[in-house]
């Protein structure tokens, strides 16, 4: 099963500036994959995924500046289980990322 929550709050700082706070959370339970691999049925399982994202920024008429974080819990659980016969590897989320983003629109 999957749970997803998100929200955004905006507040005027001045006539041309807004403060913006946003956050989002996704939880996905474990996924089981069954595949034929020549010797029978291989069963692979992913872990549960917990993904928290957040940002805090300001916006002007044609620009924005935000401090953001992705995968704040630093979840390393496999998103997709590995395909044992074909690849033997799984797909995993990026590690925790924290950054600063500047956007300008003409």
Please supply descriptive tags for the structure shown above.
single chain, 106 residues, mainly beta, five-stranded antiparallel sheet, two-stranded antiparallel ribbon, elongated
Task: Give a verbal description of the structure.
The protein has strands spanning 2-12, 18-28, 32-36, 41-45, 49-59, 63-70, 97-104. With 106 residues, it is an all-beta fold. The strands form two sheets. The chain has a five-stranded antiparallel sheet, with no helix packed on it. Strands 3-4 form a two-stranded antiparallel sheet. Strand 3 (32-36) and strand 4 (41-45) form a beta hairpin. The chain starts with a strand and ends with a strand.
Percentage beta strand: over 45%
Helical coverage, percent range: under 10%
Major beta-sheet overview: 5 strands, antiparallel
Total DSSP helices: 0
- The chain-level mean pLDDT equals 87
Classification by helices and strands: mainly beta
Distance between the termini: 42 Å
Q: Supply Rg.
A: 20 Å
Q: How are the strands ordered across the major sheet? A: 1-2-5-6-7
Number of strand elements: 7
Q: Report the uncertain regions.
A: none
General form: elongated
What is the element layout, followed by pairings?
Elements: E1 2-12, E2 18-28, E3 32-36, E4 41-45, E5 49-59, E6 63-70, E7 97-104
Entry summary:
The chain is an all-beta fold and 106 residues long. The protein has strands at 2-12, 18-28, 32-36, 41-45, 49-59, 63-70, 97-104.
């Amino acid at each position: 099963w999957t749970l997803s929550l998100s929200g955004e709050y905006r507040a005027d700082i001045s006539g041309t500036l807004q403060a913006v706070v946003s956050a989002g959370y996704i939880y996905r339970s474990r996924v089981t994959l069954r595949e034929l691999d020549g010797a029978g049925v291989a069963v692979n399982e992913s872990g549960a995924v917990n993904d928290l994202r957040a940002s805090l920024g300001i916006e002007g008429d044609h620009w924005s500046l935000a401090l953001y974080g992705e995968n704040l819990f630093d979840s390393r659980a496999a998103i997709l289980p590995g395909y044992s016969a074909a690849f033997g590897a799984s797909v995993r989320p990026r590690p925790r990322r924290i950054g600063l983003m500047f956007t300008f629109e003409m």
